[in-house]
Amino acid sequence: MIALSQLTIGALVVAGLIVVILLFMLRKMVNIVQQGEVGVVKRLGEYRKTHEPGLVIIGPFIDSLQRVDMREIPVPGDRQEVITKDNVVVTVNATIFTQIVDAKQALFSVANFGIAIDALARTALRSVIGTLSLDEALSERERINTDVQSQMEAVTDKWGIRIARIEIVEISPPPKILEALALQKQADQEKRAKILQSEGAQQSAINIADGAAKAAIRSAEGERESAILRAEGNRQASILEAEGRAQAIASVYNAIRTANPDPSLIAILQLDTLSKFAESANTKIVVPFESAALLGAAQALRSVMDAAPVI
To answer: What single DSSP character describes residue 87?
Structure first.
């Protein structure tokens, strides 16, 4: 009985070991690759196949599965000191966004691609910023990002890794340089303010001069138009006056011709005209010779002669 019980216990132990081994083998054979990853299968240390996300079954003991993250990964860099073209030491920090596009190359072309990318980024930053002055480094971050990315991609393409983008987080000059830059910025702002003020005064003077010139031009034009209108009015008045006189003379002439006057009527008219001359304030009266010849009676002229001397 004792021997039988010992055999039973031994069999149970062996069965338990077999079950554990089978479970362990099953655990090694059945694998699940998550979305965003791929599974690289190696058989006895040699690359065999790359599996997409999902269920992956491999051979026990001879195959191994290594998961590789294919998503874009930000790699924050450490602060480092870099010397610019004009020998100014600046502290630079950058974040690199990488993505594995070929899992086989990333695993077998470089021992540790994470460390390799960090070292490569430090070298590229020193190389790019070393060709720029301090002002260029502070104002041309996009150029630095592009140049560093170009230098890194020339190497990482062989590793099956894509440099998605590079973001310069910080470029810090020494404190004394920052103070000098602040003073320079203040001086530039004061200079711009003075320039804007002088330009404003100049523009104001130009506007005032233009306004005065336009006002003078309009005043001259108004005076010219007024003179033209006055001259036109005088001319029109002279024309109307001349036309009126002509019409009056013509009317008198026509009336005289129609009446067919005799010498006696003409003499009476001349005497009437001379009487009007005598009523004026003049001290002298000129009598035409023809009128005196036509007057047959001296008595008709006596009233006129008494009023004023005759020459």
So the answer is: S
Structure tokens at 263: 């010498």
* Dist CA 135 CA 88 (whole Å): 10
List the beta bridge partners of residue 94: 168
Please, are residues 42 and 66 in contact by the beta-carbon 8 Å criterion? yes
User: Residue 60, Cβ neighbours under 10 Å: how many?
Assistant: 13
Q: Which two tokens stand for residue 311?
A: 């020459």
Residue 231: both structure tokens together: 């001259």
SS3 of residue 18 by DSSP: helix
- What is the Cα–Cα distance from 25 to 63, expressed in whole angstroms? 11
Spell out, as residue ranges, where the chain has pLDDT lower than 70: 1-7, 252-253, 256-257, 259-311
Average pLDDT score, the chain: 79
- Measured distance CA(148)–CA(28) in Å, rounded: 43
Tell me which residue has tokens 């195959």.
63
What pTM was estimated for this model as a whole?
Answer: 0.52
DSSP-derived secondary structure letter, 159 = G
The model's pLDDT over 39-51, given as tens digits with 9 standing for 90+, comes to 999 888 888 888 8
| Cα distance between residue 33 and residue 201, in whole Å | 74
Radius of gyration for the alpha carbons in the chain, expressed in angstroms and rounded: 62
- Measured from the Cβ of residue 287, the count of other Cβ atoms closer than 10 Å reads 16
Read off the pLDDT of residues 170-205 as tens digits, 9 standing for 90 and up: 888 888 877 777 777 778 888 888 888 888 888 888
Task: Report the C-alpha dihedral over residues 103, 104, 109, 111, rounded to 10 degrees.
Answer: 70
Taking each continuous run of H as one helix and of E as one strand, the counts in the chain are 9, 9
As given in the structure block, the two tokens for residue 307 are: 């009023």
- Whether residue 105 contacts residue 157, with contact meaning beta carbons closer than 8 Å, is answered with no
Q: Yes or no: say if 120 and 156 are a contact pair by the CB < 8 Å rule.
A: yes
* 3-state SS, residue 260: coil
**Integer Cα distance of 221 and 219 in angstroms:** 5
